Amino acid sequence: MKLLIATHNQGKKQEYQALLAGLPLELVNLSDLGIAEAVEEDGDTYAENAQLKARNYASKSGLLTLADDSGLEVDYLNGEPGVRSARYDGGTDEDRYRLLLQKLEGVPEKQRSARFRCVIALAWPDGRTELTEGTIEGRITFEPQGRYGFGYDPVFYVPQYGRTMADLPPEVKNRISHRARAAAAARELLHKELT
Question: Distance between CA 89 and CA 140 in Å, rounded?
């Protein structure tokens, strides 16, 4: 059985191959199917955006489809950047986390709590949809640290590991991240569906 991962990003497809390993599924992405059309993520929540993508591509492809949406929520900033994390500044990853650090200038460490949140939508061609969610709690550092990861990883400190996400080896990040936690729940749903 094929599972469409609603992305053109080969790295994300490989990440899901690792997260869903052992299930009797052949993972394909949008590029594999020649689907070039992008779905506008104009929802107000991660769940809305994930469902928009999953339902649209399930309908187009006729395949069971997995789509996700995720972001960073900073408590001091009332949840910003949140669902707009990827479009926070319009620039590069570094531009976005520098803007975040600028907005938190002078804010003490205790008030820099934050979380990464990921929602996964699984959509079947018949219109049925299931959602899973994963989070990881942490705080925003004063300066970027680490060489791995992407996005806000260099400024997201994980207390249990005493490091930023960008300072964790990829195999550790892929075990504890918000996406890994949402994928573990999606994996359970898929396992039930397939057995």
Answer: 17
Catalytic one of 69, 75, 95, 126: 69
> Using one digit for the tens of pLDDT, what is the confidence trace for 93-131?
999 999 999 999 999 999 999 999 999 999 999 999 999
Report the C-alpha gap between 53 and 12 in whole angstroms. Answer: 15
Question: Where along the chain do its domains lie?
Answer: 2-194
Nearest residue to 15 (alpha-carbon basis) of 91, 66, 83 = 66
The DSSP line for 54-83 is HHHHHHHH-SEEEEEEEEEEEGGGTTEEGG
- Confidence grade of residue 23 (pLDDT, cut at 50, 70, 90): very high
Structure tokens at 26: 């052949």
Architecture label for domain 2-194: Alpha-Beta Complex (3.90)
Distance of alpha carbon 139 from alpha carbon 169, whole angstroms = 19
* Strands 129-140 and 163-164, sheet pairing: unpaired
2 phi and psi angles, rounded to 5 deg: -95, 145
What's the whole-model pTM score? 0.91
Is 68 considered catalytic here? Answer: no
